[in-house]
Amino acid sequence: MRRIENFERREKKQRRNQLAIGIILIVLMVSSTVGFIFAFGGGSSGGGNEVEADFVYNGVDFFRTSLGVGFQTSDGIFETSLEPLEVEDIEFNVVVSSGDFLNKPLYFVFDEKDSVVEELEKNMRALALRLGDACLEGRDCSNDDFVVKNCEDNVIVISESEEIKTYKEGNCIFLEGPKDKQMILADKLIYRILGIQ
What is the pTM of this model? Predict the structure, then answer.
C-alpha cells in the first residue's frame, strides 16, 4: 500500500513540476515575442509605446543593435553589421531584387565560412526556400560534401581578390574583394536585394 501511495505522490509531484515549467516557458515565449514586436515598432497604436528609430534611410527605420543595425521591410526583419551610409559609395554592378530569391533555394560558394557568409545566411533565410553550401561547377572544391551547382541555380560566390569586383553571371552573384572588404560587399548586396539602395 505504501509503495502505491509513494508512486502516486511522486507522479503527482512530477505532473505539478511539468505544469509549472510549461507555464514558465509559455510566459517567456509570449513576453519575448511581444518585446520583439515593440522593439521594431510593430505593436504600437500611437499610444506612446512606439520605439523611435535611431535613423531613417530611404524610408526605412533602422535600429542600432549590439551586432549592427536592425530594420524591417515588407520581406521581413533583417540585421546587418554596417549601416547603409557606410556602404553607399561602394560601386556595385549587380541588378537584383528580393523576388529573385523568394521561395527558391540559395547556395553559397566560399573559400572559408566566416562572418561574411553567416551575415548573408542570416539575412537571406527570410527570403530563400532553403540555404546550402555548394561548389561551383568548373571550380576547384575544397569540400567533397558540398553539392555542385551552376549558374542556373541561385548562387552567391564570395572569394578573396586584391580588387573589389561585383558581377552577375546567370543566377550567380560574385562578390570579390580583400578579406577586410567582404562584409561591405555582403551588406551592400543585402541592401540592394531589399531595394534600400
Answer: 0.72
